[in-house]
Specification:
Elements (H helix, E strand, L loop, with lengths): L1 H16 L1 E7 L2 H6 L4 H4 L4 E4 L2 E16 L2 E15 L4 E9 L2 E5 L7 E5 L8 E2 L3 E2 L5 E5 L2 E5 L7 E9 L18
Length: 182
């Protein structure tokens, strides 16, 4: 019985000393609530939520020729597709304004994605230079023009929040008091 009580007390202490980690959306409200400065947000690890797929298609040239009495048009086209998987870690490259930041997920000149929010509680979502009616965004990545897939508008960033708890709990069972005869 004493072993069970000891284990229960040990378990209670372990729970109270443990830390709770969770990912939360990066918002201006979070910055304000936790009094984060410019130098502190530079030290945060950012996480991409939802896949981001960008691509550019460029025509490398075309040529025409006559073959067996037919006009043959040869077109050369190359497609560059970059995939950022949900959960990819990123770092802050720079703060663009009060509500826009550039996040770097890989090395290279200009290889950043822009995230921003138009409201205090709104999460920082992927920003495009222009959103097309079909849902695709136009962005510049690494100095080249790219188009996003249709669902990239829903991509946003999160950060980890760990709550340390220094609560102490104790528990005991009262056995009662028996009347003495006498």
């Amino acid at each position: 019985m004493k072993n069970i009580k000891s284990l229960l007390i040990l378990f209670t202490v372990a729970l109270s000393l443990g830390a709770c980690k969770q990912k939360i959306s990066y918002t201006r409200d979070v910055l304000k609530r936790y009094h984060l400065t410019e130098s502190e947000i530079d030290k945060l690890q950012y996480y991409l939520m939802n896949d981001v797929i960008i691509f550019n298609a460029s025509k490398d040239g075309s040529s025409t020729s006559l073959v067996d009495g037919e006009i043959v048009v040869n077109e050369e086209q190359s497609t560059d597709k970059i995939i950022f998987r949900s959960g990819t870690k990123g770092i802050l490259e720079k703060s663009i304004s009060e509500n826009k930041i550039a996040i770097r997920f890989e090395n290279g000149e200009g290889k950043t994605l822009i995230f921003g929010s138009s409201s205090m509680k709104g999460r920082y979502s992927l920003q495009a230079e222009k959103w097309n009616p079909n849902g695709q965004g136009q962005i510049t990545y690494g100095g080249e023009k790219y188009v996003t897939s249709k669902y990239c508008k829903n991509a946003y960033i999160q950060i980890k929040l760990r709550r340390n708890s220094d609560k102490s709990n104790s528990q005991r069972v009262v056995k009662g008091k028996k009347l003495k005869k006498g």
